[in-house]
Amino acid sequence: MTAREGSPFRGVGVIALKEAADHLSSARMHLIMALVLLTAIGAVYAAIGRLRDTTAEDPYLFLKLFTVAREPLPSFAAFLGFLLPLVAIALGFDSINGEYHRRTMSRLLAQPIYRDAVLFGKFLGGLLVIAIALLTLWLLMIGLGILFLGLPPSVADIVRSLAYLGATLACAGVWLALAIAFSAAIRSPATSALAALSVWLILTIFWGMIAPLLAGMIAPVDPLDPFSVLKQFEVQQSIARLSPQTLYAEVTAVLLDPGARSVGPLFMSQLQGALYGAPLPTLESVLIVWPQFSALVAAMILLFTVAYVVFQRQEVRA
Amino acid sequence: METFTRSARVVLLIVLATLIGPASSLAEEASPRLTGFWITTPHPEFSLKPGDTGSIQLSFRNAHLPPQRLALDLEGLPEGWEAAFKGGGRQVSAVMVAPDETERLTLELKPPAGVSAGTFSVKINAKQHSQTITLPLSVKLSETASGKLTLEPELPALRGTARSTFSFRMKATNGGSDQALFNLSARTPEGFQAKFKRGYGSEEITGLPINAGSSENLTLEVAPSRTAAAGRYPISVRLSGGDKSAEAILSAEVTGEPQLRMVGPQERLSGDAVAGQESSFTFTLVNGGSAPATDVEMSASPPSGWSVAFEPKQIASIGPNETREVNVKIKPSERAVAGDYMVTLRSSGSGLSESAQFRTTVRTSTIWGAAGIGVIAAAVLVLGGAVMRYGRR
After folding, report:
1. Which residue of A261, A299, A304 is in closest CB contact with B337?
2. Contact list, B373 vs chain A (CB under 8 Å)
3. Structural domain tally of chain A?
4. What per-residue confidence (pLDDT) applies to B28?
5. Do B337 and A270 touch (CB under 8 A)?
6. B391 touches chain A (CB under 8 A)
7. Closest CA to A159 of A283, A290, A297
8. Distance CA B222, CA B196 (A)
9. Which of A274, A293, A302 sits opposite B372 (nearest CB)?
10. CB contacts < 8 Å between A and B, how many?
11. Domain B149-255's class?
């Protein structure tokens, strides 16, 4: 095998922009974004109504826009956590096998680019589209907040919500990488979509039931030893954190609530002398969930690596 | 036979004597019944001030006589004097007393102003158709005849700190013949607050009515100014009403006391600390009192697992208006979560204690942040390895 020359990433930008343009003009993207926008506006509008009814004074009123819910609608953050994996899967489930399906892969690779650039470009293009959608949503939220609440957001509000935006992007990236990995591994687009959706279902809905079961098996509770309860809880939390949705929920809870001080169990001795409800500095909140954020980013990169290895080892001529 | 009769007489005499003896002694013991008519007064000799009206209480007593009608008359009244008998609220000139009853009248005497001092005799005559009953009175005229107004403090000198309240109990006596309202005033040093109260009451008063011849208790409460230096402060109290006044001089001795204050770093009572690491804060102890604070000891009540050390732990003495710096080293517990904790710092000595709540914002170590970046870097390295291994196809 002779060594190839030049950068493997040449042409990534072109492919990413083309991919993003394709996504933005596709009917699938329009449909799913319309769904997200409608639910988001509904959630924010409900939250504003509730804020105007109940909250008299709050130093972090804008963050409440993300977290306050009014029956029957869930909060904006909950909506985003539920729908965003769907958007990412919709963008990525046929990115590789769709090319095969349309028989355009060999034509694409006839261009003077490496395969690396194709996969990187497709991933970055998808991420760019999600980033644009998220930024639009964020601006919409801030705008609605200013319009209906009648006050400007504070710097801390902006920083915290932007950090939340970054974490959301990382979470969406995990699902995008997973969908691309399935699309590279599975030849049929329908099967890869189903595979990605079933993983999403398991990790989003069933993982909360599976984690306690597994924890009960790994670390059974000894009724005579109170520390075994704690041990089981810690094991359960570790298992639950294998799901990106758990990590994302923890990041959301701490970033959007300045009063939240920890994501794990706390002892009374740790809280002695503590001031409840005192807001944490923004940097401290970020530091608390930094492991979760790092885990999301690392999971995204590793899943993409899997997709990359699988794609690179494939036979393209078909 | 004769001897028998003699002896019988003797026996009879003895028996008679024993029978009659007690009876005669009984008659001797019963006091004679007072019968007659009197005019009495408790003070037959008294003094009056020229121009003032004096009231003399008179009692008319009828003992075991039929009802008597008595015409009243004054004899020997000097020229220009005014006199009137008052009974039942009216002016009277005769009195009638039922048997075994007493009638009370008041004689109002008013010597004209400007009469020189001297003693005058006046007789009250009560005329019946057959007899005249007389009560001689002796009136002494003098300028100072009316009683004095006095103000006597129970304890004229008190001692306390600048924060205590000095309570002077005083007795005001109106020796005059008239009830009057007297004004109260106190002259205190600058910044001192004075309050008058009646007896043990709680109402603040500015004046006090005192009946003629009686006295009232009153309390003067003086709150010294907090910044008063140690020393003796005079307070003069004045009670005045009409043309009378009385004065009392009191003194309050303010003793010095230390007053400690803890001032945090840059006058703030908050600071940052990292969990598990020692942070140092410079506190300043200020003695704003008027006496030195001695044997000041620093202590703290931190949350469990925390350690608080002082440098120095004990201070021998801080003079008035002096400051002393204390280095407070706070080390939050390893397991402290990020956020605000309250640490109570205390300085005590010379019988006083001052505490400050120091709000410590615990920051978590950034080591986990570095670890997170390490995890991401490892993932990127894996991706880089994959690119190296499978790249450029």
Report:
1. A261
2. 294
3. 1
4. 46
5. yes
6. yes
7. A283
8. 9
9. A293
10. 116
11. mainly beta
| Chain A nearest CA to B200, separation (Å) | 46
What pLDDT, on a 0 to 100 scale, did the predictor assign at position B26? 46
3-state secondary structure chain A: CCCCCCCCCCCHHHHHHHHHHHHHHCHHHHHHHHHHHHHHHHHHHHHHHHHHHHCCCCCCHHHHHHHCCECCECCHHHHHHHHHHHHHHHHHCCCCHHHHHCCCHHHHHCCCCCHHHHHHHHHHHHHHHHHHHHHHHHHHHHHHHHHHHCCCCCHHHHHHHHHHHHHHHHHHHHHHHHHHHHHHHCCCHHHHHHHHHHHHHHHHHHHHHHHHHHHHHHCCCCCCCHHHHHHHHHHHHHHHCCCHHHHHHHHHHHHHCCCCCCCCCCCHHHHCCECCCCCCCHHHHHHHCHHHHHHHHHHHHHHHHHHHHHHHCCCCCC
CB contact under 8 A, B386 and A305: yes
Assign A177 a pLDDT band (cuts: 50, 70, 90): very high
Domain range annotation of chain B = 36-141, 149-255, 260-367
B260-367: what fold? Immunoglobulin-like (2.60.40)
Interface probe with B: pick from A119, A272, A276, A288, most Cβ of B within 10 Å: A272
Average pLDDT over residues A138-162: 87
Contact: A261, B387; criterion CB under 8 Å: no
Report yes or no: B363 at the A interface, CB cutoff 8 Å: yes
In chain A, which residue's Cα lies nearest the Cα of B359? A275
Domain range for A17 is 12-262+277-312
Q: How far is A63 from chain B (nearest CA, A)?
A: 19
Partner-chain residue, chosen from B304, B343, B391, that has the shortest CB–CB distance to A8: B391
> Considering only CB atoms, which chain A residues are within 8 Å of B363?
281, 284, 287
Options 2.60.120.200, 3.40.50.300, 2.60.120.10, 2.60.40.10; CATH of B36-141: 2.60.40.10
Report whether pLDDT(B378) > 90. Answer: yes
- Interchain contact B367–A (C-beta under 8 A): no
* Residue at A267 is within a domain: no
How would residue A122 be classed by pLDDT, with cut points 50, 70 and 90? very high
B388 interfaces chain A, CB cutoff of 8 Å: no
Is residue A6 domain-resident? no
Task: Write the pLDDT tens digit of every residue in B270-299.
Answer: 898 988 889 999 999 888 877 888 888 999
A280 chain-B contacts, CB cut-off 8 A? 338-339
Is residue A176 domain-resident? yes
Is residue B27 scored above 50 in pLDDT?
A: no
Task: Look at residue A299 in the predicted model and tell me its pLDDT.
Answer: 95
Q: What ipTM was predicted for this assembly?
A: 0.84
Give B 194-253 residues with CB within 8 A of chain A: none
Q: How confident is the model at residue A305 (pLDDT cuts 50, 70, 90)?
A: very high
Residue A281 placed within a domain: yes
**B304, B372, B387: residue with CB nearest A8:** B387
Mean pLDDT in residue range B147-154 = 83
